[in-house]
Amino acid sequence: MVRVTFTDHLGSKVAIDHAPGCSVMEAAVENEISGIEAQCYGAAVCGTCHVYVEERWFEATGSKGEWEQAMLDALPLARPGSRLACQIVLSDQLDGAEFEFPERQESLE
Ligand code: FES
Question: Is the whole-model pTM more than 0.90?
Answer without folding.
Answer: yes
